[in-house]
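Structural prep section.
Before we set up the soaks we want a predicted structure of the protein with D-altro-hept-2-ulose 7-phosphate in place, mainly to decide which crystallisation condition to try first. Input record follows.
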Amino acid sequence: MLEQRIQQNFIESADLKYQAAETLSKPIAQGVQAVLACVTSGGKVLACGNGGSAADAQHFSAEFVGRFERERPELAAIALTTDSSILTAIANDYDYNRIFSKQVRALGQSGDVLLAISTSGNSANVLAAIEAAHEREMTVIALTGRGGGKMGAVLRETDVHICVPHERTARIQEVHILALHCICDGVDAQLLGEQDNPA
Ligand SMILES: O=C(CO)[C@@H](O)[C@H](O)[C@H](O)[C@H](O)COP(=O)(O)O
Ligand SMILES: [Zn+2]
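Run finished without errors. Recording the tokens verbatim:
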């Protein structure tokens, strides 16, 4: 019955979040430190992903540039998923796999962070963006699932890997957005102090 199915989705998502709280708190804290080091020394975050992960890249950038829960100075983040002229020109003239990597080469500088989001860890355009970020001496924060896929294999020791221990794309995405909110919350706490957040 439909309502049972819906309840099962809620339970599966909640179970995964309980389970992942312990394993992911360390890499998420590393992610907070990486973006703090970046933005407090004048750097910026470039964010990319496909489909729901493109939405996550934009969601995170909005909260960085605008605000999360508390007033604070603007922080630099650009979602590489939003400029339809750039995206269509690169996909049309070169290859869809290069839509993010060419933007990383154009905009990325040493000390910047690439937020690379893929539930499978296997999206070729996100993998190419990671390669470009390494060329530009950027730190990569990778949000993946399903064991990390190809992305897990190309990350460097100085990168951060937030790998959700699940196989289903939807469940992995639900933890990705929680992890991104934890990064926003952690950055605010480090910048503004640990006071309770507003409702
Ligand atoms: O949101 C969803 C599914 O929940 C889809 O839009 C999903 O993001 C797309 O199929 C993506 O292309 C999947 O790519 P990836 O997560 O494997 O990198
Ligand atoms: Zn989705």
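Observations: Residues 36 and 159 are 14 Å apart (CA to CA).
Flagged for discussion at group meeting.
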